[in-house]
Amino acid sequence: MTATHDGTDRTLMTIGQLARRSGVPVRTIRFWSDEGVLPETDRTAAGYRRYDAAAVARLDLVRTLRELGMGLDDVREVLLRRRRVGEVAAAHVRAIDERIRALRVQRAVCTLLARDGRDPAPRELRVMNDLARLSAEERQRMIDEFVAEAFAGTDPDAPGAGIASAMRTMPAELPDDPSTEQVEAWVELADLVADPDFRARVREMAVAGSEAPTPPPFDPAQVLEHAGAALREGVDPASPEAAAVLERIGVGETADRAALAATVDTFADRRVERYWTLLGRLNGWPERPPTVPAFEWFAAALLSRR
User: Fold this and answer.
1) Rounded Cα gap, residues 47 and 129, in angstroms
2) What is the pLDDT of residues 66-122, one digit of tens each?
3) N or C: lower Cβ tally within 10 Å for the chain?
4) What value, to the nearest 5°, has the Cα angle with vertex 166 and ends 160 and 169?
5) Are 180 and 230 in contact (CB under 8 A)?
């Protein structure tokens, strides 16, 4: 028994006794004491730590907060009454949510690797590692930087520049609980936007779209309908039947067909269309059939009759 400053008695425990009473290992109690979150009441003449009964309640609180994953700095702030437990817990909930999101992505990446049953190429593995490591904000920044570089200096309100606005207003973001297919889409998308050739191609389209004075002198819907049907039926773009298709689209004999074909080639690109497909997959949009092959057929038919 030991007397307090007000004359009352209290029982002091050694660190071993406190460990047995609380179930917390001695080394942990010693560490928390050294860190200042569980200071000893006093020490014996030989330098051994001793704790009073209040230390048991304090130790229970420290252990609870630590088991919830809170750092010692947060625990110290609570014990010093500089922050309320609810405030610290709310911040910790946000941190846990971020960790859960990261684990879901990692799980999806591992599922993808296990499902394929093959060793991925080094570049593919690096992209997967980046995907699992980067936060949602960092992944979003990568897409934003690609769009900013591709459309730098162009007029987003110019005729034909809709692709710029679309890529800016519909960003790619991996869902909190991604499917394996969405992970595949993100891996491919990340690889795509990192490709210098793809960036240059999108830049070419952006500049051309920003500088285009008027819409093209043909209806894209007509191209999809008639050129698409010709493609499905196996019509040769150089055949007489193709000439009739061009007329149905609305391209007359006097049109500058070489210039029209060049315009089509500028804005019809399979990899850019793939970008939109992947973006749609990430955002859960309905999958649409490819349109570029119909425009490629249209350009080939135009060039065969210059």
Assistant:
1) 51
2) 887 888 888 888 887 877 767 767 777 777 777 777 777 777 777 777 776 667 777
3) N
4) 145
5) no
